[in-house]
Amino acid sequence: MCSVPFKAASANWPRQGGFGAPIEGGDLIVFYSPRELMGSGPVLQAFTAAGRILDEFPYEAEQSAGFCPYRRGRSFSRVDKRPSDRYCKN
Q1: Which domain holds residue 25?
Q2: Residue 67: what pLDDT?
Protein backbone atom coordinates (compact mmCIF):
# COMPACT_ATOMS: atom_id res chain seq x y z
CA MET A 1 0.00 0.00 0.00
CA CYS A 2 1.28 3.52 -0.81
CA SER A 3 1.77 5.79 2.18
CA VAL A 4 1.78 8.95 0.02
CA PRO A 5 -1.41 9.98 -1.82
CA PHE A 6 -1.15 10.52 -5.56
CA LYS A 7 -3.36 11.59 -8.45
CA ALA A 8 -4.09 8.98 -11.14
CA ALA A 9 -3.98 10.15 -14.76
CA SER A 10 -3.31 8.63 -18.15
CA ALA A 11 0.26 9.13 -19.41
CA ASN A 12 -0.79 11.75 -21.97
CA TRP A 13 -2.86 13.83 -19.50
CA PRO A 14 -0.02 15.86 -17.87
CA ARG A 15 1.37 16.65 -21.32
CA GLN A 16 -2.05 18.12 -22.20
CA GLY A 17 -1.92 20.38 -19.13
CA GLY A 18 -4.62 18.73 -17.04
CA PHE A 19 -4.80 18.38 -13.29
CA GLY A 20 -7.04 19.71 -10.54
CA ALA A 21 -5.95 18.92 -6.97
CA PRO A 22 -5.93 21.65 -4.27
CA ILE A 23 -2.27 22.64 -4.37
CA GLU A 24 -0.15 25.70 -3.57
CA GLY A 25 2.70 27.52 -5.27
CA GLY A 26 5.98 25.68 -4.75
CA ASP A 27 4.30 22.26 -4.29
CA LEU A 28 5.84 19.28 -6.04
CA ILE A 29 3.53 17.09 -8.13
CA VAL A 30 4.01 13.55 -9.41
CA PHE A 31 1.65 11.80 -11.84
CA TYR A 32 0.76 8.10 -11.75
CA SER A 33 -0.59 6.74 -15.04
CA PRO A 34 -2.59 3.49 -15.01
CA ARG A 35 -2.79 3.50 -18.86
CA GLU A 36 -1.10 5.14 -21.84
CA LEU A 37 -4.32 6.92 -22.90
CA MET A 38 -7.28 8.23 -20.92
CA GLY A 39 -9.76 5.35 -20.59
CA SER A 40 -8.02 3.09 -23.08
CA GLY A 41 -4.67 1.96 -24.42
CA PRO A 42 -2.10 -0.40 -23.00
CA VAL A 43 -1.78 -0.81 -19.23
CA LEU A 44 1.16 1.25 -17.98
CA GLN A 45 0.97 1.50 -14.15
CA ALA A 46 3.91 3.88 -13.85
CA PHE A 47 4.91 7.30 -12.56
CA THR A 48 5.20 9.36 -15.73
CA ALA A 49 5.64 13.06 -14.87
CA ALA A 50 6.97 15.26 -12.07
CA GLY A 51 7.07 19.00 -11.61
CA ARG A 52 6.55 22.04 -9.43
CA ILE A 53 3.66 24.52 -9.16
CA LEU A 54 4.92 28.00 -10.05
CA ASP A 55 2.01 30.32 -9.21
CA GLU A 56 -0.19 30.96 -6.18
CA PHE A 57 -3.63 31.03 -7.83
CA PRO A 58 -5.44 29.15 -10.63
CA TYR A 59 -6.39 30.97 -13.83
CA GLU A 60 -8.95 30.24 -16.55
CA ALA A 61 -7.62 29.05 -19.91
CA GLU A 62 -9.73 28.53 -23.01
CA GLN A 63 -9.12 24.96 -24.18
CA SER A 64 -11.86 25.00 -26.82
CA ALA A 65 -14.88 27.14 -27.69
CA GLY A 66 -16.92 27.54 -24.51
CA PHE A 67 -14.64 25.31 -22.39
CA CYS A 68 -12.40 27.30 -20.04
CA PRO A 69 -10.99 25.06 -17.27
CA TYR A 70 -8.83 26.42 -14.48
CA ARG A 71 -5.08 25.85 -14.78
CA ARG A 72 -1.95 26.39 -12.72
CA GLY A 73 1.46 27.56 -13.88
CA ARG A 74 3.84 24.62 -13.62
CA SER A 75 7.28 23.46 -14.64
CA PHE A 76 7.79 19.79 -15.44
CA SER A 77 11.08 17.95 -15.01
CA ARG A 78 12.30 15.35 -17.46
CA VAL A 79 11.60 11.92 -15.95
CA ASP A 80 11.81 8.34 -17.14
CA LYS A 81 8.69 6.24 -16.63
CA ARG A 82 9.03 4.39 -13.32
CA PRO A 83 6.93 1.28 -12.68
CA SER A 84 4.72 1.87 -9.64
CA ASP A 85 5.26 -1.64 -8.26
CA ARG A 86 8.78 -0.55 -7.28
CA TYR A 87 7.27 1.93 -4.82
CA CYS A 88 3.79 0.62 -3.93
CA LYS A 89 3.36 -2.95 -2.71
CA ASN A 90 -0.04 -4.48 -2.00
Answers
A1: 7-86
A2: 92
